[in-house]
Amino acid sequence: xxxxxxxxxxxxxxxxxxIVIAAFALLSQLLQLPYESYIYSLISxxxxxxxxxxxxxxxxxxxxxxxxxxFQKSNEKRLNVNSTIEISTYSRQHGKxxxxxxxHLQLKSPAARPSDRDNVIEGSRNKxxxxxxxxxxxxMENQAxxxxxxxxxxxxxxxxxxxxxxxxxxxxxxxxxxLVRSQWRSAREGELRKAxxxxxxxxxxxxxxxxxxxxxxxxxxxxxxxxxxENVLKVYVYKEGEKPIFHQPYLRGIxxxxxxxxxxxxxxKQFLVKxxxxxHLFYLPFSSLKLREALSNQNFTHxxxxxxxxxxxxxxxxRKYHFWNxxxxxxxxxxxxxxxxxxxxxxxxxxxxxxxxxSNIAGGFKIGxxxxxxxxxxxxxxxxxxxxxxxxxxxxxxLAFFAGGIHGYxxxxxxxxxxxxxxxxxxxxxxxxDPGGKAKYRELMKSSKYCIxxxxxxxxxxxxxxxxxxxxxxxxxxxxxxxxxxxxLDWASFSVFVLEKDVPDLRNILLSITEEKYREMQHxxxxxxxxxxxxxxxxxxxxxxxxxxxIWYNRVFHVKxx
Length: 562
Description:
Mean pLDDT: 77
Helix content: 25-40%
Largest sheet: 5 strands, parallel
Low-confidence stretches: 28-89, 91-159
Strand order of the largest sheet: 6-7-8-9-10
Radius of gyration: 25 Å
Number of strands: 16
Number of helices: 19
Distance between the termini: 64 Å
């Protein structure tokens, strides 16, 4: 009997030991891909640059439009003089490109990993790629990188492994992200369900130019969806909210997209309804730029108070109306371009259609629900279409051009490898922001084959839309960035995507693109341009309508099926 008890005890110990070993093995697996970033975030609450750390980086003037875009006052020295690597800058005084001894850049960068050309240029739809794993929040992890710029160390906490554009396409097509879907039944819900069926069964349009059709994922579905939006969609704009945070659009600068949409939406007669019961969508008309400025100009002292201000607004409209609670906010949307908007709205407005410039899938942006808002640098509210166009392909002698502030972790690497290294690679730091410097910036974009759109503090940059405006093929170097109008446009047909790790091989990548392929992309780019233009009085297929269409499209395809 005693031996039997001892045997049972040994069995229990062995069982416990086995469970411990299994748990340890499981934990070891979890701490590797695909779940290590999720586990790490649970342990250390690291999500890219932490909100407090981001505050330090982003707590800069909202009027720094020109410096963010790459313009610098002639007498201003932003870079450390006691450093070791020279940057090529444009000197207005000497009227030429050259190396200025008074501007240098000090870097600490990891050794470049070998490039994988097949994972760089995402032009082929049939390319076989191993999909990078995500956790259940769509997060991916990269290695930390630190740089010393202006004597200050800018540390990026746990950058995430890159998501190629092909992976984003897969997410969109498979709709693999878990999204909140409407649960109630109403006449408006039935109208959206009917529209969804009509879009899915839309007949193929054949009498269109092949080149035009090639820039869309499915041109026939887009056309049918757009027509239904024009005929069906009704939007209600909440009147609640006090200026300047609500109902006060700002129409100039790099955050102008949210202002232009607000202005055009609030005065629109085609889509707006006064009776909220007739609405398919509900617009929350706040400005993320004005919200950010309120931190300094009003009684807000901490970022949490900005979050609470939005939470209180949601509470206010949900008490007055039943629409938010009915759908849990899934038929509501807002449009916000400031860097902070993604974090400020991640919890309180997570169920909304979030239209964000900071469309980072590693930062909570959900492909298929949220909408990527293009960053449009509007210099003149009276003339938003000024300086459009560029030289023909035969009059673009520069292979690649970039000029901009050296902030974030990526641009110093770009400078290190390509500033002043090749005569056909015009890679510069900040340019003078006087009229002559700005004119030279536009001239270089208009005379370059490829324009480098390298991320700064965040994944988005106004250079993407600038490239389209100046007909310079955009080269997007920003891992995890979801480009605008992603629901309908095939970005690989008119732009180049380069992984951040492959910056050292940038010139070879661009030279590997044939002249014929380049001319095809540049021709498509000129066609795409019409979809990225603001008009004081909106016209069919302009940027206002295209953003609204993306919101409509995502909403329609997330109506609960019968």
